[in-house]
Specification:
mainly beta, about 5% helix, Methylamine Dehydrogenase, Chain H, about 475 residues, 5 helices
Length: about 475
């Protein structure tokens, strides 16, 4: 049963944009259904919610379109007692509602000229729409969708997907994508970044959804951190040498430039620390989109993430004119990310770093979140389709043995981030499942697949056919029944 279709005004016409076609074709119906074809058996011990955010534009863009501009649409599958319920809804952001009222676009995207926006506000630098379409977590009993250019953070009801509103603890400069939920404490750790000194802030929200801590993180200028990390006692921030050209920011233009002669800097601060408690470490220049985990070991803080071998790759030659550099910037094969480890000695100030695996391109890592912030063994990454921001398979890395196991999703089949679902009473760190949505272009449909994390080579133990083919997107999460209930 499709609902809400009449309420959403869609003016986007078919067009030849590489990221509004194929596996990125937006979907406009909002559906609620438990009438789903199931191949195999949904494991009876799974009880929770898989949540995926997607960029799903309903209007054409003002100026050039970037796939990260699209309106946020959340897709969920609720699994319980061997049954499944699928639901999807647009995030009713202020920008989305204003454009619905207008009947067309009001803001440029990140490739546009900000001065061309018809309205200001709801963006990190005041001119682009907060689409809330990048990341998604579940915290304090609600889904929280976020935008990587810093937005307000929207809370949605995990059962109905109704947009409840913006999170009331969000500061003036907004919050970035990738707030972190520590399952051990129920806290949410967040950061933001902006073009105004001190350029970054850090905060902690309690399990009761109340702001517990908020401090400035002083940076040398406007920076573009995408993710943060945490251990049991510390929060970790990064200052990579890829940032907007300062002289252009003054003209309201936001063009990133890489500075390979500058170090990557890491700031480590006690989770409830004050600005003067932060310790900074230098490391090799790179850019990192995502961290997999961090933990403490003796005097060291250990951080793992995806080191980019080519943060500013050459443009794709076979992409439509005007989109060659954009295409390369989101193609894993172009920027070549690989699993990397940094060790920061909190006593001596020394940094050590090493490549963990040479099997790039891998990115968008998931771990067993029950041990986030603690020593861990397994990372589940996705692999990229050459030339595209599409995920064509999964790699399980064993950080203890150095072994890696890979599966392909199949020809013209593209997945999402595949969070780990722990079994009840797990016997080991990888005792559980991986879950993903697949967009299958050959069969013109989407699926939810569930894989045994201890035997990924065996392929899905269960496949649930979704009622429509959904667009590809960026981030996803898993929340247990207990987390939803909080
Ligand atoms: Fe991200």
């Amino acid at each position: 049963m499709a609902t809400g279709v009449d309420q959403v005004k869609v003016t986007l016409e078919p067009n030849d944009h590489p990221y509004r076609n194929g596996a990125w074709t937006p979907v406009f119906e909002e559906v609620d259904t438990d009438e789903l074809e199931i191949i195999g058996t949904i494991p009876a011990d799974i009880d929770g919610l898989y949540v995926r955010n997607t960029e799903n534009p309903v209007h054409d863009s003002i100026g050039r379109y970037h796939p990260f501009d699209g309106d946020g649409m959340i897709h969920t599958i609720r699994l319980r007692n061997g049954k499944a319920h699928y639901r999807n809804r647009f995030v009713r952001t202020k920008g989305f509602e204003a454009e619905q009222e207008e009947g067309g676009p009001l803001w440029v995207g990140i490739m546009g000229k900000p001065d061309d926006s018809k309205r200001k506000g709801w963006g990190a630098h005041g001119s682009i729409k907060d689409s809330s379409s990048t990341d998604v977590v579940v915290h304090a009993g609600a889904i929280l969708s976020t935008f990587y250019q810093c937005g307000e953070g929207y809370r949605l009801d995990p059962e109905t997907l109704e947009t409840i509103g913006t999170a009331d603890w969000v500061p003036e400069d907004g919050i970035s994508a990738h707030p972190k939920v520590d399952e051990a404490t129920g806290e949410l750790l967040f950061f933001n970044y902006s073009t105004k000194a001190p350029y970054c802030h850090y905060g902690v929200v309690g399990p009761d959804n109340a702001l517990k801590h908020f401090i400035p993180i002083e940076l040398p200028g406007a920076r573009l951190p995408h993710d943060m990390a945490f251990t049991e006692n510390f929060a970790i921030f990064n200052d990579c040498p890829l940032y907007w050209k300062p002289e252009l920011i003054e003209r309201n233009l936001f063009i990133p430039a890489y500075h390979p002669d500058e170090p990557t800097r890491f700031g480590i601060i006690p989770r409830m620390g004050q600005p003067e408690d932060i310790k900074w470490f230098d490391a090799k220049p790179t850019y990192v989109l995502h961290w997999t985990n961090a933990y403490e070991q003796g005097d060291e803080v250990v951080l793992d993430g995806y080191f980019q071998n080519e943060p500013v790759p050459p443009p794709l030659t076979d992409f439509p004119a005007g989109y060659e550099s954009m295409g390369a910037s989101i193609d894993l094969h172009s920027f070549k990310p690989e699993l990397h480890r940094w060790r920061f000695n909190m006593k001596t100030g020394e940094t050590k770093e090493e490549t963990l695996f040479n099997d790039y391109p891998v990115e968008f890592g998931m771990i067993n979140q029950q041990i986030a912030g603690k020593p861990y063994r397994y990372v589940y990454s996705v692999t990229g389709e050459p030339g595209w921001f599409l995920f064509n398979g999964l790699t399980k890395h064993d950080l203890e043995t150095g072994e890696a196991e890979h599966i392909s999703f199949g020809e013209q089949r593209f997945g999402s981030e595949a969070p780990f679902i722990p079994r009840a009473n797990p016997q080991s760190e990888d005792d559980g499942y991986l879950i993903s949505f697949i967009t299958d272009m050959a069969q013109n449909r989407s699926e939810c697949i569930i894989i045994d994390a201890q035997d990924i080579a065996a392929g899905p133990v269960c496949t649930i056919i979704l009622p429509h083919r959904i667009s590809s997107g960026t981030h996803a999460t898993w929340a247990s029944a207990e987390q939803i209930a909080r």
